[in-house]
Amino acid sequence: MRADLKKQLCYALTGAVVGGLLVFPSRCAAKNSSLQIKGSDTMVNLAQAWAEVFMEKNTADFVAVTGGGSGTGMASLISGTCDLAMSSRPMKDKEINLAEKKGIHPVEIKAALDGLAVVVHPKNPVNGLTLEQLSKIFSGAITNWREVGGEDRKIVLLSREVNSGTHVYFKEHVLRRNDPNSKEEFAPAALMLPSSQAIADEVAGNPAAIGYYGMGYLSDKQKALPVAVDAQSPFVAPTVENVMSGHYPISRPLFLYAKGEPAGDLKRFVDFIQSPEGQDIVRETDFVPAIAAGK
Q1: Cα separation of 187 and 138, whole Å?
Q2: Taking a C-beta distance cutoff of 8 angstroms, is the pair 77, 70 a contact?
Q3: Which of 62, 68, 236, 248 could form a disulfide with 31 if both were Cys (CB 3.0 to 4.6 A apart)?
Q4: What is the pLDDT of residues 124-148, one digit of tens each?
Q5: How many Cβ atoms are within 10 Å of 125's Cβ, its own excluded?
Q6: How many CA atoms lie within 13 A of 160 on its CB side?
Q7: Is the Cα dihedral 237, 238, 240, 245 positive or negative?
Q8: Which listed CATH number (3.30.930.10, 3.30.420.40, 2.120.10.80, 3.40.190.10) goes with 114-251?
Q9: What is the mean pLDDT of the chain?
Q10: Domain 3-113+254-289 superfamily per CATH
């Protein structure tokens, strides 16, 4: 991540948290417009980076970013309490129908791409897992690391909570292997944690743990495992290049949803996100641009 963006993010994170909302105290006064963005915890750091750079360039604007999960973002959009909902999954039909009943016509904006990293403690000797092994681990069919080439140690399962779009995506694409008839669920022993950072922190301190989160949360305190589609396929690491090429098997788009076709201040912000500068920020925060260079 470039130095100036790190400085901006550092500035952002020194804001006070009031009622769960990140507030930038020296910037709140004398603003002509205010935008509210809520939803996916996976996207919070990215959205904060967009907001800070946008506000540096547009000093009369204020953009507030709040997490809580994709479901929270959708609920806020439907209730009219945010301008943009961040979501790491597509909007559900029932959410669209509820929005339409309230006179809200959601517009989907693909903002970035992400690879879900499966992470373990750096000292875990396992160096790769297949999608089938992951499905069996997280559903509880495999409970000891020795069953997948590791030490004789009980596996500690970590998952995002059910309101998270990351949770939903992992369940549908890994546990259920994209089978619409599958009823596979997370094992009852899985610990449902409130944020990707909570999973990262737990894995860093627990040699028996395994969890998953967006690539933007990776650090040297966890080991990201290469993943193979099946036992006959190559193991592929969660990298930007592998997500862009489609080779990494646990990849997904990240969305923003507006209450209608963006206009005015909201359109200016969305245009910034989709601009080369906005997509550079996507790359600098360890996600993958949704829009090719030069578009």
Answers
A1: 6
A2: no
A3: 62
A4: 999 999 999 999 999 999 999 999 9
A5: 10
A6: 27
A7: positive
A8: 3.40.190.10
A9: 88
A10: Periplasmic binding protein-like II (3.40.190.10)
